[in-house]
Amino acid sequence: MNARRAAGLLAVGRMALGVAVLLAPEEVTSHWLGEQARHPAVRYLAHSLGARDVVLGALALATLGDGRRAAQAQLACAAADAVDAVATVAARESLPAVGALGTVAVAGGAALAELRLARELA
User: Is pLDDT above 90 for 35?
Assistant: First the structure.
């Protein structure tokens, strides 16, 4: 699979997750936050996270025709995913173990893939 196609698939996946979080924040976030997903402040923050992912995914898709801009969009996505992974590690004591592990694996893996894609698209 070429870098442009891989970046497009990641972008669509990010947008789908963002839409799911916007539409059903408690249901989606409960998989990684457990009971804390019921807190009203968590729902508020989940909406922010969902919107962020929709926008980043749309940006990544919109820039695929321009290698330099596509690489910059991938770097922005990688930064967001790396922060998600690091924040999860920092909060792991108060999160369900399976959810924390899954979040670190998915967010960390996505960040690494996006860094590689940024290099290939540039």
Answer: no
